[in-house]
Amino acid sequence: MQSDKSIPQATLFQALIPIIVLIVLLTFNVMFYGDMATSGANQLALILAATAAALVGFSLKVSFSRMLKGIVDSITASMSAILILLLIGALAGTWLISGIVPTMIYYGLQVLNPTIFLTAAVIVCAIVSIATGSSWSTVATVGIALLGIGKALNIGEGWIAGAIISGAYFGDKLSPMSDTTNLAPAMAGTDLFTHIRYMLITTVPSMILTLLIFLGVGLFTDHDASVNNTAALSEAVREKFYISPVLFIAPAIVIWMIVKKVNALPALLAGVLLGALFAVIFQPHIIAEVAGATGSYVKQSYMAIINAMGGSVSVASDNEIAAGLLSSRGMAGMLNTIWLILCALSFGGVMEAVGLLKRITSPLVKKAKSNGSLVATTAGSCVFINVTASDQYLSIVVPGKMFAQTYKERGLAPQNLSRTLEDAGTVTSVLVPWNTCGATQTAVLGVSTFVYAPFCFFNIISPFMTILVAYLGFKVAKLPPSKMDDVHPAQVSDDPSEKPVEYMQ
């Protein structure tokens, strides 16, 4: 295996070649395929861009085994996410035929009204995500139900998905059980709870602005058309399913398991199996309909559960809105997204192995002279890695490694870096269609990334908020003098504003 020192460094032009190839191909895909681009065109664009990166690697004498290892390592690190995605598909299927999601929709329609719906969706998802530490689990459970409720209230699916994702990622950022919330301080060199406290400085204002936007939209939008839809959908759902608060036991158990730090895989599997059990007990008519076969109830139950877990199922209804909501694509519906993720990770793996990502971003570090420009450069690098490496974790790890020493040399406490990594890395991943997060949420919600991204206000505001706070110099924590001993004096800026002072939280 070659060492990093034995690999010649690419020129900036060489490093940009795969990016240019990717941008050109993705542009063609959007122009020619529109929303269908993720059904194969974008996957092939990523593979061709990875090929371009490999050709650059060969020109630099990088061995094929090194590049292949980069791909394998990238995919291996995301295997749990792929398995989670498959379980989410199965969960959606069993929670549909068991009546869990229809029950959520039914009771949600009784409680929520169009004026406050988007605001309430943000708050509900934020609470669940803080409790579970998982934006993916939040979107896959309460998010799916909220999407159905919002559609019944005649609210655009882009707005609904934007509210769900905004709330889910707010909670994910602040939860001590979140993987990214633990990863960012680990890369920056600070502790978890200092990181969370310091994130509040930018995260709370971003969320307040998000809530004000969604509340304003609710207050100043005409909702008259939704009243009849709500009543008709409620009746249609009750006609097809047994509706009872008892069905909330399954999601409550799943949320409780995740709160108790049970790994997401067994927690989601438990949710799938509980959904299957509840379907057999409470929804015999749905079992017969979904099974599509005659015979004993055991046979019908088995076939209905397998159909719901593995493939597309739908529950017939005379109500057009209900017919659209009461359907699921199961595990099979996630395969296209998994294909996209594998191609994206292959591209990111080659780029990382050849050293092209670092070559593109490293010159930016030298040009960041002030604290504000350093934070802006860090945030831009996180977004760039999300777009090019297509992985949320790499958007934290790569800039974290690159900038940690620079922050220290500037006399900046590590929580400045960890906060920026989350404000710009964690939350923007879901805005990129070929990123693992963007592809997953599109598959789970059935809403294109291009449709929901403009309405993910929290995710859009967060990186700008962290840059604004840095430029204003507000709560820019400094390293205490005792932590500066291993930094050479010549490396510390002469700017008085950047002198290390005693840190005050």
Jot down its keywords:
two-stranded antiparallel sheet, 24 helices, single chain, 2 strands, mainly alpha, disordered C terminus, 505 residues
Compile the SSE list and pairings.
Layout: H1 12-33, H2 41-59, H3 64-77, H4 79-97, H5 100-111, H6 114-132, H7 135-152, H8 157-174, H9 179-188, H10 192-219, H11 226-240, H12 249-259, H13 264-282, H14 284-291, H15 297-310, E1 313-314, H16 320-325, E2 327-328, H17 335-354, H18 356-367, H19 371-388, H20 392-409, H21 414-426, H22 436-445, H23 449-452, H24 457-472
Antiparallel strand pairs: 1-2
Helix pairs in contact: 1-2, 1-18, 2-17, 3-17, 4-13, 4-15, 5-7, 5-11, 6-7, 6-8, 6-10, 7-8, 7-22, 8-10, 9-20, 9-21, 10-21, 10-24, 12-13, 14-15, 17-22, 18-19, 18-20, 19-20, 19-21, 19-24, 20-21, 21-24
